[in-house]
TrEMBL record:
Organism: Shewanella electrodiphila
Full protein name: Cytochrome c
InterPro entries: Cyt_c-like_dom (IPR009056), Cyt_c-like_dom_sf (IPR036909), Cytochrome_c550/c551-like (IPR051811)
Residue intervals of the Cytochrome c domain: 11-90
Classification via PROSITE patterns: CYTC
Ranges annotated as spanning the membrane: none
Source organism, top-level taxon: Bacteria
Keywords: Electron transport, Heme, Iron, Metal-binding, Transport
């Protein structure tokens, strides 16, 4: 008997849940959906999905990747409880296998014909995601079998964005009829928890072939919530899901990797729908966009560490920036940012200390208010981007050759205004 089997009787899912939440959730997420550590409830297991593999991985840890070894920390019984709990949370496919059959282009749209056909190809797919496309063959039937872990606390349905005639689904050996059929949307009810699933697809009757047609995923019974993908394109589709951050009555400050911006950036969304990012390493504004703030979906889904996407349109982004001129003797040194009222950033430039406050005027303009807080009076110089998407103006000082320059006095403020062009 494996250690796990010998302790399964003693393993206690509730105890496993408590241990998981105190020790593992910080990296793997309270809902097991991942963070610094991998997602532990989906179909993808990088180091093995079998209970004894999971147990061995928890015991040994992954020191290179930052996960400690737990063999010496927990008793075998406690470790078995953690594994039980992880397995109880599982969703998606496992042990996925396939068979393909080549058919005649004038074959009937029926799956009975495969009884008399040789299997062309068969195998298992470690990705645990179905893929109905077979680019090298024109007409074929493909059949998948797998263990399907449905949502265990609610009813679920397989949802497909393809026409159903081409599919046939069996759950635990019984044919399932669709509960919903309308133009290009079909849904088949599944059971809760673990079950066997078989899905067959035929190209007969298909007009247009593209993987995108095979978006298939599990939703809740009411078809209001997308839960997990069962095909490659279904999973990709869910990964693009949007998790919009929308500031309502005050600035939202977010520190996340954003596509096109340096990782150190601090992104700020304003309720007036003009948004910007400040890079503390250079004390500069590295991007400004109008419209929705951020979609952090790609950043929090699964194990992908993809950058968040801006929700609107760029006015500019790196390498263009609004940046104080620094020299070797006067590098910029970021001090802090303030979140009360309009978000502001304080930094030191040589002997001078500045604060820059970004104030949304309306959906298309952002006022940057620079104040020399302390130090000596002296030249404030800010290099500016150019584009026909916006114009930059000032009431004090002057702008020449994309450089705003003014003789700054301690305690005084100086403004540059960035306004999107009319036709933007
Ligand atoms: C400090 C962060 C951290 C903690 C705490 C942590 N893990 Fe991990 N875990 C990781 C990382 C990172 C990986 C990915 C290893 C790699 O890159 O191969 C991982 C991988 C795993 C895997 C392998 C997943 C796969 O896809 O095969 C399992 C299982 C796992 N952890 C379980 C646990 C359990 C159970 C606990 C608590 C007892 C725990 N981890 C605590 C960071 C952590």
């Amino acid at each position: 008997m494996t250690p796990l089997q010998s302790f399964t009787a003693a393993a206690n899912t509730q105890e496993g849940k408590t241990l998981f939440e105190t020790t593992c959730a910080s990296c793997h997420g309270k809902k097991l959906t991942g963070g610094a550590g991998f997602n532990l409830k989906d179909e993808m297991w990088v180091h093995g999905s079998k209970p004894e593999q999971i147990l061995a991985n928890i015991k040994a840890g992954f020191s290179q990747a930052g996960m400690p070894a737990f063999a010496a920390i927990y008793s075998d019984q406690q470790l078995a409880s953690i594994v039980e709990y992880i397995l109880s949370q599982r969703e998606g496919l496992d042990n996925l296998t396939y068979k393909t059959y080549h058919i005649d282009s004038n074959a009937p749209q029926s799956f009975e014909i495969i009884d008399n056909l040789p299997i062309k190809k068969s195998g298992s797919l470690a990705t645990n995601l179905m893929d109905f496309s077979l680019p090298e063959v024109k007409d074929y039937i493909i059949e998948f079998e797998a263990d399907l872990y449905g949502p265990k606390d609610k009813a679920g349905q397989i949802f497909s964005m393809t026409h159903k005639e081409f599919f046939e689904i069996e759950i635990d050996g019984k044919r399932v009829e669709p509960s919903m059929t309308d133009w290009l949307r079909w849904a088949w009810p599944i059971k809760q928890g673990k079950q066997k699933i078989k899905i067959r697809y035929t190209t007969i009757g298909t007009k247009q072939r593209s993987d995108k047609r095979f978006k298939m995923f599990v939703m809740n019974g009411e078809l209001t919530e997308k839960i997990f993908g069962i095909t490659v394109s279904g999973k990709q589709y869910l990964n693009q899901a949007t998790f919009n951050i929308t500031p309502d009555n005050k600035d939202e400050v977010v520190r996340k990797k954003i596509v096109k911006l340096p990782t150190s950036s601090i992104a700020v969304g304003t309720p007036l729908n003009i948004n910007y990012a400040f890079n503390p390493k250079t004390c500069s504004f590295v991007g400004v966009w109008s419209g929705n703030f951020l979609n952090v979906g790609p950043n929090i889904e699964g194990r992908g560490r993809d950058g968040s996407l801006i929700g609107g349109d760029w006015l500019f982004h790196m390498p263009a920036q609004i940046k104080p001129l620094v020299t070797d003797t006067t590098p910029c040194e970021f001090i802090q940012y303030h979140r009360s009222g309009n978000t502001s950033f304080t930094y030191r430039l040589g002997h001078q200390q500045y604060r820059v406050e970004a104030i949304a005027q309306d959906r298309s303009s952002l006022l940057l208010n620079y104040t020399l807080l302390s130090g000596q009076n002296g030249n404030l110089q800010i290099s500016l981007p150019t584009s026909d998407k916006f114009k930059i103006s000032t009431k004090q000082g002057e702008i020449t050759d994309n450089l705003f320059s003014v003789n700054a006095k301690v305690g005084q403020s100086y403004q540059v205004l960035l306004s999107a062009s009319e036709n933007n």
